[in-house]
Amino acid sequence: MSAIETIEKGGITSATGFSAAGITAGLKPSGAKDLAVLCSDRLATAAGTFTKNVVCAPPVTVCKGKLEASEGIARAIVVNSGQANAATGVEGTQNALRTADEAARILGEEAKHVLVASTGVIGRQINMEKMVAGISEACKQMSPDGGDDAAKAIMTTDLIDKQIAYKVKLSSGTVIVGGMSKGSGMIHPNMATMLGFVTSDAAVESGTWSKIVKEASQKSFNQITVDGDTSTNDCLIALTNGASEVVADTQEDLNLLTETVTKCCQHLAKAIARDGEGATVLLEIKVSGAASDEDACLVARTVAGSSLVKSAVFGRDPNWGRIAAAAGRAGVDFDESELDIFLGPHQMMQSGQPVEYDTEAASKYMVDASKGEYMSGEDSVIITVSIGGGSGSGTAWGCDLSYDYVKINAEYTT
């Protein structure tokens, strides 16, 4: 039996000591849930990765400052959808700080231990009267069963909420890692995700937890793309509170915990890619034979992000030339004579040369994927690329590019 097991219907509050709520505060014109609060019953070790976009939203700047001021300690996170609180100037920063202050006051906590995140339309100020009233109500409603509502409250153009949880047996006991995320468009992360949150009840030293979160982010959220647009608000925030009283300090335990956090982040990242605006399939690009894992990941991400590859997949056109071209422009040096390409089980290129394959069968492979059950694995189009004899390998995820993507984004603010 695997040391890591999926928790049925698990999510962001599966780990011991975490509560959450998701409510309608009136921040979205649709009347949908739009405000979430996530809270640990004790101070937790915290780590985050954030967007590198120069147009950086005030919640991101505020979170970075709080994590530094608290030396990586936090207790709660307040997340709103509807307004991104980005490109909102001094007022936006004041609103982000006030959001944390209000939650801290209600929770009886220091403001530096409350983090904030926002998602939605850029350039619009948050209605703070509704925000403050919403925080009060959400804090009243928090419970260990509130994860589902919280996951729904952070959605924007997402079609489904995204949650997962795992339990892993370490040498001195079992710990739980759970998470939730949102994202569907403006997805091309750089050191983070759109909005992602992870919780754990393991006891982990702060510096070690930061390394775990960074590695997990690099192998998950940093390897997805929907449209090539890096958001102003991208962030991954992870809290581990030690409530299980299981200390992760041996190398074996830390390796297992890292694997579990990475597995959690990869599930959430893949769910974002599969839920890409207008998407009909999940794209999984596997690259091997590179000089390093970093090179392989770069090639995989370049292929996953190619508009031509994505368009061909939507059209169920097995145009392997676009795959070869994308791999070749990734900025990784390799010998074209060693390039192999597969679309699912169909080999299209071997040692840099085209090979005969059944075009209709290859097209049907993509058609069948579009009919597969959501996030079942059967809804994935897998492209396998080998670029040589090196030991480096990497995977990236994306989605096809459909007519609906343009329609959704053409009408986003109206």
TrEMBL record:
Keywords: Acyltransferase, Amino-acid biosynthesis, Arginine biosynthesis, Autocatalytic cleavage, Mitochondrion, Multifunctional enzyme, Transferase. The active site is at T193. This is Arginine biosynthesis bifunctional protein ArgJ, mitochondrial. GO terms for biological process: L-arginine biosynthetic process; ornithine biosynthetic process. Substrate binds at T156, K182, T193, E277, N409, T414. The record marks A192, T193 as: Cleavage. Pathway: Amino-acid biosynthesis; L-arginine biosynthesis; L-ornithine and N-acetyl-L-glutamate from L-glutamate and N(2)-acetyl-L-ornithine (cyclic): step 1/1; Amino-acid biosynthesis; L-arginine biosynthesis; N(2)-acetyl-L-ornithine from L-glutamate: step 1/4. Catalyzes two activities which are involved in the cyclic version of arginine biosynthesis: the synthesis of acetylglutamate from glutamate and acetyl-CoA, and of ornithine by transacetylation between acetylornithine and glutamate. The alpha and beta chains are autoproteolytically processed from a single precursor protein within the mitochondrion. Belongs to the ArgJ family. The record marks T119, G120 as: Involved in the stabilization of negative charge on the oxyanion by the formation of the oxyanion hole. One of its GO terms (cellular component) is mitochondrial matrix. GO terms for molecular function: L-glutamate N-acetyltransferase activity; L-glutamate N-acetyltransferase activity, acting on acetyl-L-ornithine as donor. It catalyses: L-glutamate + acetyl-CoA = N-acetyl-L-glutamate + CoA + H(+); N(2)-acetyl-L-ornithine + L-glutamate = N-acetyl-L-glutamate + L-ornithine. Its EC number is 2.3.1.35, 2.3.1.1. Gene3D superfamilies: ArgJ beta chain, C-terminal domain, L-amino peptidase D-ALA esterase/amidase. Pfam families: ArgJ. PANTHER family: ARGININE BIOSYNTHESIS BIFUNCTIONAL PROTEIN ARGJ (PTHR23100), ARGININE BIOSYNTHESIS BIFUNCTIONAL PROTEIN ARGJ, MITOCHONDRIAL (PTHR23100:SF0). Heterodimer of an alpha and a beta chain. Heterotetramer of two alpha and two beta chains. It is found in: Mitochondrion matrix. Its main location: mitochondrion. The keyword Metal-binding does not apply.
